[in-house]
Specification:
The complex is a heterotrimer of chains A (282), B (359) and C (271). With 282 residues, chain A is an all-alpha fold. In chain A, 76% of the residues lie in helices and 0% in strands. Chain A has 2 domains: 58 residues, no CATH class; 212 residues, MetI-like fold (Orthogonal Bundle). Chain B is an alpha+beta fold and 359 residues long. Chain B folds into 2 domains: 230 residues, 3-Layer(aba) Sandwich (Rossmann fold), CATH 3.40.50; 111 residues, OB fold (Dihydrolipoamide Acetyltransferase, E2P). Helix content of chain B is 24%, strand content 35%. Chain B contains 8 helices and 20 strands. In chain B, the strands form 4 sheets. Chain B has a 6-stranded mixed sheet with strand order 6-7-8-3-9-10, with helices on both faces. A 5-stranded antiparallel sheet of chain B has the order 13-12-11-14-20. In chain B, strands 15-19-16-17-18 form a 5-stranded antiparallel sheet, with no helix packed on it. The chains are: A mainly alpha (282), B alpha+beta (359), C mainly alpha (271). At the A-C interface, helix 1, helix 4, helix 5, helix 6 and helix 7 of A face helix 1, helix 3, helix 4, helix 5 and helix 6 of C.
């Protein structure tokens, strides 16, 4: 095969970009992995690959054999439970709202949509302290429902926006045909709307779930009891002392990072299309 | 099967009134066509009957019962939409069965009715397909099948053939008409195409700017249009309309145009000196035999042979007159010819009101 | 009310409830806490506050422009059709898909001056000690900015890729025939089409960067000596010091910047 000079130099230029991009992207993640498979002493030797790679760290974590890990499984479960609950609740709230605004053309729908959009654009970090004080007032501090409700509040606006956009693409005549066929509002929702919205619903459910799983600030503010905190907060707590077992921390971190990566790759089809479409429209 | 009655119907969108006091009756089993240009209000009227639009004023009654406050699903009507509105995630069979499933009908009944409708419309091979796998004409038939399965009191059609190509449209026209003859369900059909109206209707309602211009059978509208709008809307090519003044003298009468052309006028319509619009359809004009008296002189501009007929455009005075004649007369652009008018086929309208004068 | 209107209200109600209870109330409460003029005087007198304003501005100006420029270039890279580039793009998404806590902590340890990977490699290559990355304020802030870029770059690159893919290929073919170079094609075709998207993305990115708590807090904790705080982490600092009114006052100070940006984005999207 004859490579022309032009195409060879173009490939070289591309590689010149590609290799740094690869290194830049993977370095922190590789480092995480590196620490997780390194035995305690060699982890701090600053090597690029451990002399004796081991899975021992994982064993310690899974057996909760360290003070900082005493509630690992419970905290993992908390993260999971809260994330799934947020996903489901967000779907319920957002789907109903999008249906009401887009199909039922409810009075005041436009206003609610704009208010939701406003909430979406305000950085969540700005609302964190007021939310903390609010939950305190409602008596919900240290209750997992505080985090769940806070995350639903944060995830709902964008969800409603995406669902409304997708919903507007369905021709209105379908609703009219269903009305004439004799459908009640609930039957229209259940038998016509939901089936046609399925891909968007999957994207939004996943979005809300991952948002909650990845959240640190709100979880850290609203939950403090070791038995209630999520894995994210537990990770942050490791930083408190100087003699923390860093290699165990990184192992936990790796475990914590795997589900979102897996979910993202599994649902890649739905995610990229559904979520960036809203932004590209701008 | 049922009668439909519109009484003093008015419709306002925001501050704009689009329908101004419309009232007429549709008899049981009738195929009624609402026809008119875009924006005349025909679709709005249909949608008010369907329950898809609020009724701003007046009442609509189906089978004697006022339905203003009734939900669409309680009115016992079925509708075929312009864009078919088939449920994309359901098979053809599921689409047709949907309304019955909503009413929790017995599965056996559902199967029977769907099979029967599929047979009438030749949809048997497509029952398990999805709408995206069908052609336009097939989708239209599924939409009709969905309506038939309901066995409603009234069928509503909202410009169902607009999205089909010309050939398919002609075929579907026949199918819809045959369906009506078979099922005899009262049908209200909306279209902007006057050919569809003329070929399919038992009676036609011609609408314009939210008002009824005329109601009648196709031939009534063709033979005796009650105003200029109907006269020029019905019939293709459109009726020739010439402005002029009636002149009566010594028992003879004609209509004088500004350029001095005299159009023959029989009958008593129009007083001497009255400003009128003189209407004569292209098919009621013919080329005069050489030397015939009373013919209208003109010069041929365009000759358009269409096979069996020939359409001619003739310059008469200031006007371009269209004439349709059978066969292929030996005429060329530039020829000076004379036009003969079929006297009984002349229509006279008052110039200011547009209303028909005389019987 | 028809059943349709009734159900519309019922289905909208849950979100309206959430909105009132968890957005309106906290906002009102927050503004209420920030009502004392004295708080603002205290803020102005606090060197930590003034320092964080500067940090935040640096973060915004440097961080966002750097990030968007790189995203623009990379978007051009990733639309090239090569199999290995496609595989690379799958990996490229990871920083965004993966939670930030473990990755930020990973970087924190990489930058540890004694045993971190970075300084170990520097030592091995040059025999000299690498800098104290997270303890020298300008370096620490730079690392926080790089961390933020690492995390958010994939998302914006994706957006710009989508923007590029929307440009009809024939335009480029016509330009090739006309003899245009790559740079000329970019200037005449790519940039005009991407301009609006680039601007909107920059504005939206500003809003989100203002809210990036994790990149600073987990990397430097705001230190050393409170010298790398940004607006997002400031609120927590004052909360810890039991000065919630200052937390809220600091946020209120940011509103003149945030609200116009939000208004701009809302105008764009709610068409």
């Amino acid at each position: 095969m004859k490579l022309s000079w032009r195409s060879a130099s173009r490939e070289a230029k591309l590689l010149l970009i590609g290799i740094p991009v690869l290194l830049w992207t993977m370095l922190p993640i590789y480092h995480l992995f590196l620490f997780a498979i390194s035995p305690k002493d060699s982890a701090f030797a600053g090597k690029l690959w451990p002399d004796h790679p081991t899975l021992h760290n994982f064993e310690v974590v899974f057996r909760e054999q360290h003070y900082y890990l005493s509630h690992f499984w419970l905290q993992l479960w908390n993260s999971f439970l809260i994330a799934v609950t947020v996903g489901i609740l967000t779907l319920l709230v957002a789907t109903g709202a999008a249906f009401a605004i887009s199909r039922l053309r409810v009075r005041g729908g436009r206003l609610v949509m704009n208010l939701a959009l406003f909430t979406y654009f305000i950085p969540a970090a700005f609302l964190a302290v007021p939310m903390y004080k609010t939950m305190s007032t409602y008596g919900l501090l240290n209750n997992q429902w505080a985090l769940i409700l806070a995350m639903v509040t944060i995830a709902a606006p964008y969800s409603i926006w995406v669902l409304k956009q997708a919903s507007d693409k369905l021709p209105y005549e379908l609703d009219e045909a269903a009305k004439i066929d004799g459908a009640s509002p609930l039957q229209l929702f259940r038998l016509v709307y939901l089936p046609l919205m399925m891909p968007s619903l999957v994207a939004i459910g996943t979005y809300a779930l991952l948002l909650a799983w990845n959240e640190y600030l709100y979880a850290f503010l609203l939950l403090s009891n070791d038995k209630q905190i999520t894995l994210a907060v537990a990770l942050g707590n490791f930083l408190a002392a100087d003699d923390s077992p860093w290699e165990l921390l990184m192992t936990v971190g790796l475990i914590y990072a795997l589900p979102p990566a897996a979910i993202y790759y599994a649902f890649k089809r739905y995610m990229v299309g559904g979520l960036t479409a809203g932004a590209v429209k701008a | 099967m049922a009668s439909v009655s519109f009484q003093s119907i008015e419709k306002t969108f925001g501050s704009t009134k689009v329908i101004h006091g419309i009232g007429f009756d549709i008899h049981d089993g009738e195929f009624m066509v609402l026809v008119g240009p875009s924006g005349c209000g025909k679709s709005t009227l249909l949608r008010m009957l369907a329950g898809l639009e609020e009724i701003s004023g007046g009442t609509i009654a189906i089978d004697g019962k006022v339905v203003n406050e009734m939900e669409s699903k309680d009115r016992d009507i079925a509708m075929v939409f312009q864009s078919y509105a088939l449920y994309p995630h359901m098979t053809v069979a599921a689409n047709m069965a949907f309304s019955l499933k909503l009413r929790k009908a017995d599965p056996k009944t559902i199967e029977e009715r769907v099979a029967k409708a599929a047979k009438i419309l030749n949809l048997d091979p497509y029952l398990q397909r999805y709408p995206r796998e069908l052609s336009g004409g097939q989708r239209q038939r599924v939409a009709m099948g969905r309506a038939i399965v309901r066995d409603p009191k009234v069928f509503l059609f909202d410009e169902p053939l607009s999205n089909l190509d010309a050939k398919l449209r002609v075929a579907m026209r026949g199918e819809i008409k045959a369906l009506h003859q078979r099922l005899k369900t009262t049908t209200v059909y909306v279209t902007h195409d006057q050919v569809e109206a003329m070929t399919m209707a038992d009676r036609i309602v011609v609408m314009h700017d939210g008002r009824v211009e005329q109601i009648g059978t196709p031939l009534e509208l063709y033979d005796r249009p009650s105003n200029l709008f109907v006269a020029q809307f019905i019939g293709s090519p459109a009726m020739n309309v010439i402005e002029g003044t009636v002149r009566r003298a010594n028992g003879a009468a004609h209509v004088d145009t500004a350029k001095g052309v005299k159009w023959p006028l029989a009958g008593a319509a129009g007083a001497d000196g009255q400003q009128v619009a003189y209407g004569i359809r292209p098919e009621h004009l013919s080329l005069a035999a050489k030397g015939a008296s009373g013919s209208v002189p003109g010069e041929v501009v365009v000759v358009e042979p269409t096979g069996a007929e020939t359409e001619l455009v003739v310059q008469v005075g200031d006007e371009q007159i269209v004439l349709v004649t059978h066969g292929r007369p030996v005429v060329n652009p530039g020829d000076r010819i004379g036009l003969t008018v079929e006297p009984a086929m002349v229509h006279v309208f008052d110039r200011s009101t547009g209303q028909r004068i005389g019987g | 009310m028809s059943p349709w209107q009734a159900w519309g209200a019922i289905m909208l109600a849950p979100y309206v409830l959430v909105f009132l209870v968890f957005v309106v109330y906290p906002i009102c409460y927050g503004l209420f806490l920030a009502r004392h003029p004295a708080s603002y005087v205290k803020l102005a007198d606090d060197p930590v506050f003034t320092r964080s304003v500067v940090n935040t501005l640096i973060f915004l100006v440097v961080g966002i422009n750097l990030k968007m420029l790189v995203a623009l270039c990379l978007s051009g890279f990733f639309v090239q059709t090569r199999t290995w580039i496609k595989w690379l793009s799958l990996l490229f998404i990871l920083p965004w898909a993966v939670p930030s806590i473990p990755t930020i902590l990973s970087v924190r340890f990489m930058l540890n001056p004694e045993w971190g990977l970075v300084n170990s490699v520097i030592f091995r290559l040059t025999g000299a000690d690498g800098p104290n990355w997270l303890n020298e304020p300008p370096l620490a802030l730079s690392m926080a900015i790089l961390m933020h870029i690492w995390k958010s770059l994939p998302f914006w690159t994706l957006i710009l890729i989508a923007g590029r893919l929307a440009i009809p290929g024939e335009l480029y073919e016509a330009a090739s025939v006309d003899g245009a170079s790559s740079w000329q094609k970019f200037k005449a075709i790519t940039w005009p089409s991407l301009q609006t998207l680039y601007l909107t993305s920059t504005i939206l990115s500003m809003i989100w960067t203002l809210g990036d708590f994790n990149s600073v807090y987990l990397l430097t904790g705001g230190g050393p000596a409170d010298l790398t705080h940004v607006l997002a982490t400031l609120g927590i600092r004052y909360l810890r010091l039991d000065q919630v009114d200052l937390s809220m006052a600091a946020i209120v100070c940011a509103l003149p910047l945030v609200l116009p940006l939000v208004y701009f984005m809302m105008k764009r999207l709610s068409k």
